[in-house]
Amino acid sequence: MNRAPSLDEIEVSVFGPGYGECILIHVGDNKWFIIDSCIEPKSKELPVLNYLEQIGVEPSDAVKMIIATHWHDDHVRGISTLVESCRSAQFCLSSALRAKEFLTLIAAYGKRTMMVNSGVKEFSKVIDVLQTRRNNPKEKAIPLKYAIADRCLWSTKPNELEKGQACKIYSLSPSDAAILLTHKAFANLLPQIGQPKNRLFVNSPNHVAVVLWIEVGDLFILLGSDLEETSDPQTGWSVIVGSTTSVQGKASLFKIPHHGSKNGDHPDVWSLMLEAQPVAVLTPFSRGQVHLPTFQDISRICTHTENAYMTAFKRSKIKKRDKMVEKMIQQTVKSIKPIPYSTGQIRCRIKPDNGTNTWQVELFGEAHKLYL
Question: Could you tell me the CATH number of the domain that includes residue 183?
Answer without folding.
Answer: 3.60.15.10
